[in-house]
From TrEMBL:
Organism per entry: Cnuella takakiae
Span of domain Methyltransferase: 76-222
Keywords: Methyltransferase, S-adenosyl-L-methionine, Transferase
UniProt enzyme class: transferase
Pfam families: Methyltransf_31 (PF13847)
Name of the featured protein: Arsenite methyltransferase
Example GO biological process: methylation
Length: 280
């Protein structure tokens, strides 16, 4: 196998999610996080139901998430919220229902087609305090100490340099600010067949890291009060696995104790920060 560089992996994700932006929700949900590795066993592998949440807009819901981070994000009226990997704008519009007209929501996505789709949705809704910026979440087009809250839904696991993203989250958060991020993590080692599959990478699984390593990254980047707000196991149907693993590998995987999980992680930027001073 020829190992892809971080830039090649990012370009793979950009191309895949550019295609996804042109698909409807039903097509995306029937695949592995929108990757196209469709399953005949289940309709929806990871995505939680947003439809009862205030601010939900069906045109912005592409069925790509693995949690409901905005539900746990403790967003208050007037807050500035940044959504990483904002897609068609689903979490941004739900966050806007929490911030109200006095707050601000900034969505960041590096896929041009997603930005175009999100901006069109915001225009239809008439929101003048929700904006979408094209950019890399490893180098966010946002000033330091800008956000009260950062949210993200099933995105960081697609980024090769997760440490760089957490550094950026720390930079853009105000002292005392916090994040709530839904992501995919592992317990145990995935078989090589899954690791090598580009479809599974763009589909949120083989780009994931070990849960303990993920939480340690958060801690190493200076965050405090780290909590796992929600955790659920992800079961990949046999008809997907059988296309990636032979029968022996499949049996071994099922009995290995290896787990794939969706977790929603909360953490805070300390109120007293050497670079930014202390909160009032």
């Amino acid at each position: 196998m020829v190992m892809k560089s971080p830039d090649q992996l990012k370009e793979l994700v950009r191309q895949k999610y550019g295609e996804i932006a042109l698909q409807d929700k039903a097509t995306n949900e029937s695949s592995c996080c929108g990757s196209g590795c469709c399953s005949t066993e289940v309709y929806n592998i990871m995505n939680d139901d947003y439809t009862q949440m205030e601010g939900y807009n069906p045109d912005a819901d592409l069925g790509l998430g693995c949690g409901l981070p905005t539900q746990f994000a403790r967003i208050k009226e007037g807050d500035t919220v940044i959504d990483l990997g904002s897609g068609a704008g689903n979490d941004c519009f739900i966050a806007r229902a929490e911030t109200g007209s006095t707050g601000k929501v900034i969505g960041i996505d590096f896929t041009p087609a997603m930005i175009e789709k999100a901006r069109g949705n915001a225009e239809k809704l008439g929101f003048n305090n929700v904006e979408f910026r094209q950019g890399d979440i490893e180098q966010m087009p946002v000033a330091a100490n800008k956000a009260d809250v950062v949210v993200s839904n099933c995105v960081l696991n697609l980024v090769p340099n997760k440490d760089g993203v957490f550094k950026e989250i720390y930079r853009v958060l105000k002292p005392g600010g916090h994040f709530s991020i839904a992501d995919v993590v592992l317990q145990g080692q995935l078989p090589a067949g899954l690791q090598e599959a580009a479809e599974m990478y763009a589909g949120c699984v083989s780009g994931a890291v070990q849960k303990e390593a993920y939480l340690e990254l958060v801690k190493q980047n200076g965050f405090t009060n780290i909590q796992v707000q929600k955790e659920k196991a992800i079961t990949i149907p046999d008809d997907i696995l059988s296309g990636l693993l032979d029968q022996e590998q499949l049996a071994e995987f099922k009995h290995s104790g290896t787990g794939i999980f969706s977790v929603t992680v909360y953490a805070e930027k300390p109120c007293c920060d050497p670079a930014a001073g202390c909160c009032s």
